[in-house]
Amino acid sequence: MAQAKRLLAAAEAILFSVGEPLELSKIAQALEIDEEEARQTLLNLAATLDERGSGISLLRLGKQYQLTSRPEFSEQVRAVLEVRRNAPLSQAAFEVLAVIAYNQPVTKAFVEQVRGVDCSGVIATLCQKKLIEEKGRLDLPGRPLVYGTTPDFMRCFSISSLEELPSLPEKETPPEPESDTAESEES
């Protein structure tokens, strides 16, 4: 039992010290245990943090883990750190982000075709905020860049994989227009 408690404390210290998402394999290597034992240790750490009402929680991002402050304490953390609040995303930025998240990897031309307007500035802003990134180029004339979401995107939206994105609403089919023949027969 003392060994499990020590592993738990060591995992917490590692994640606290790194301060960014860390691969499960690296955690297991540092703790000198296999990945399954590391995963169980991290589950126990998350449960311990929750049980004691800690101000921090363990966030899983795919195969990576990170200690984060709980959202309910964000105001107090900002006050102490004197962090300038980031400007919220515009409606256009959310739309572009949604198009990319649900269809990635996509080109700027695809995003513009879906939205019907130029998206260069919005894409540049989302890249600057590290919510999207260049994922390569298509093997087409002009070799257009393709974009996809980043681990920061998943962290900001508290999801561990893209499968956790909400389902898109079903597209409604417009009602059939009524024919004019019924009206002309009544007249």
Automatic annotation (TrEMBL):
Task: List, as start-end ranges, the regions of compositional bias called Acidic residues.
Answer: 175-187
In its keyword annotation, does this UniProt entry include Cell division? yes
Looking up Gene3D superfamilies in the UniProt record yields: Winged helix-like DNA-binding domain superfamily/Winged helix DNA-binding domain (1.10.10.10)
Keywords on this record?
Cell cycle, Cell division, Chromosome partition, Cytoplasm
Q: Provide the transmembrane region boundaries.
A: none
UniProt keyword Disulfide bond present: no
InterPro entries in alphabetical order = ScpB_csome_segregation, WH-like_DNA-bd_sf, WH_DNA-bd_sf
Which region ranges are annotated with the description Disordered? 164-187
- What GO terms describe the biological role, i.e. biological process, of this protein? cell division; chromosome separation
Write down the Pfam families for this protein, in alphabetical order.
SMC_ScpB
Q: Which PANTHER family match?
A: SEGREGATION AND CONDENSATION PROTEIN B
The protein here is known as SMC-Scp complex subunit ScpB
Per the UniProt entry, what species is this protein from, by scientific name? Candidatus Fimenecus excrementigallinarum
Gene behind this chain? scpB
